[in-house]
Amino acid sequence: MSRTIAISKFVGTISLGLLTTQGLSYTLSTTTIPPLLALPSATPAHSTFRHLRTLTSRHQILLSTLSASSLVMAYLLSPSRLRHPYLLWATLATAAGWGGEAYSKIMGKAEKNGAVNSETRAKSMRKEGSWTEDEDWIPEEGEVNGEVVREGMEGWKVKQGIKAGIWGTGWMMAVVGLWGDAA
Asked: Where are the beta strands (DSSP E) in the chain?
């Protein structure tokens, strides 16, 4: 049983570390977005950015879910004297980083099923300059506005930096907790 707990802690911490240090958030916001902003036309920048957001979202949700579930499993399987709160705090930081992603995915599925008023959603999407991560904006041919694309990329870049900070804090808590477990 102790081996299962140790493996769960290790997998959860490594997954959280991949979210932070491998750069799903940090590297994307510092290395990938500037070249996209330098593209000569808004149309290829927009399509590339949409593809990047989709892939990033999938990987972030996968690693966040793996990390949170592993850390919670380690906490639940531990005997009462070994149930350290750092496991819950690291899980909370993981969930805080992907909570917005999960919410937007759930709301997107609910909207497709008709559970959300699509007229209200469309009004919120039409606000000038508002382009959030959860919007599914598909412009018609020739209607891509370069300023809106730039604002969307810059806003996404800030969100990724915030996520990297949150996940980094959780990762540091998990590493210090593992270090304390071994001492």
From this structure: none
What CA dihedral angle connects 9, 30, 42 and 125, to 10 degrees?
50
* Intra-chain end-to-end CA distance of the chain, in Å: 20
Residue 56 CB coordination number (10 Å): 19
* pLDDT tens digits, 90-145: 999 888 887 766 677 677 765 555 544 444 444 444 444 444 444 544 555 557 78
Q: What is the 3-state secondary structure (H, E, C) of 12-33?
A: HHHHHHHHHCCCCCHHHHHHHH
CA distance 168 to 164: 6
Residues with Cβ < 8 Å from 132, sequence gap 6 or more?
Answer: 155
User: pLDDT by residue (tens digit) across 12-42?
Assistant: 888 888 877 655 566 776 777 888 888 888 8
Contact 166, 25 (CB under 8 A): no
pTM score of the predicted model: 0.72
